[in-house]
C-alpha cells in the first residue's frame, strides 16, 4: 500500500488551532489559510478566546464552530485558571492529539491545559516578542519551553528563540508564511472596491499596516516623503490601515507639508488591487516577524522598501527583490525611494524577481505541507 493510501486509511489526526480572535491580522489570516489547506485526513477544531472578528465568517463557511474560552478581559483573575481547567477537560473529551496555539494570550491557556490533558502542543512564535514587557516575555519563554515544539515564521525568530530564550535548536522549526497566489491574483483582477485618490499619474508608494502601535513607524514614512518633496520629486503614499494613531499621523502629515500627497485609506479589503496601482511598496517597522504585507507587495510584482528587522531581509534581499534600509532612519528611507524613482526599470526587475520568489518559496501549498509533516511528527512520531 502506498504511503498516501496508508494515511487515508488511518484515523484522522485530531488537531485544534487556537488563537485569540479572528480580526484582520497577519496571524489570523495565516490560520484561516492553514485551515483551508490541510488535507482531509484531519479532524480540525478551532478554539478562541473571543469568537469575534470578520474572519469568523470564512471559519463558519468551512463548517467549523469555534469553542470559546474567554478570559473576560484579564489574565490576572481566577477565571484564567477556570478556563485552563475547562480547556483541559474539553481536550480530553474531544480526544485531541495536538494543539497549535498562535499568540500570547491563547498560549497562556493552551500550554498548561494541554499538559494537564496529556495532549501535545506546538507554540507559534511569529514575531520578536517586541509587543511585550519583561514579565510577559519571561512568561512566554517559560510556556515555550514547556511546549512539545515551537514554530517560528522567520530565521530571525528562530535565532531569538535559541540565542536569547534558550530554546533547544532541535525543538524549533521555521515555516515561512504562505500566500495563495491564485486567490491573490483573482483579487488583483477583481479591481477596486472603492475609488482611490487621483494622483494625476504621479508615482505611488503603498504602506499596509495597522495604526495601533508605534512599531509600524508610519511617522518615518511621512518624514521620508517630506525629504523626497524637498529633493524636488513627486511621490504619493497610500496608507492602508486604521487604528488609534491615525489622527496623530494625519496631523504630522499636515505639519510636514505632505498632507496633499499622503492618503489615509483606512481598512481596505482590496489590497491586492491597490498594490496593482502602485510603483513600489514600503514597510518601515522597527520590529517584525514575517510580514504578510511585504509578501503581498512582492506577489503583486512590486519592489519593496523594508527595514532591516525580523524577517524583512529574508524576504526582500537588498538590491535583489527590493531595498533594505536601517530602521528608524527616514533619511535612508527617502534615499531608497529616490533610487526607485530615478531608475524605474531597475524597480521593475526587482519586482519581477520578488514575484518569482513568492511563487517558488512562499506558496500556500508549501506552507501547508510543512505544517502537515510537522503535525504528524510531533503528534504521532511519523
From TrEMBL:
**GO MF terms held by the record:** glycosyltransferase activity
Q: Which domain of life is it from?
A: Bacteria
Q: Which UniProt keywords apply?
A: Transferase
Q: Where is the Glycosyltransferase subfamily 4-like N-terminal domain?
A: 24-181
Q: Does the keyword Nucleus apply?
A: no
Which Pfam family, an example, fits this chain?
Glyco_transf_4
The record, for Gene3D superfamilies, names: Glycogen Phosphorylase B
The protein depicted here goes by the name Glycosyl transferase family 1
Q: What is the lineage of its organism?
A: Bacteria, Pseudomonadati, Myxococcota, Myxococcia, Myxococcales
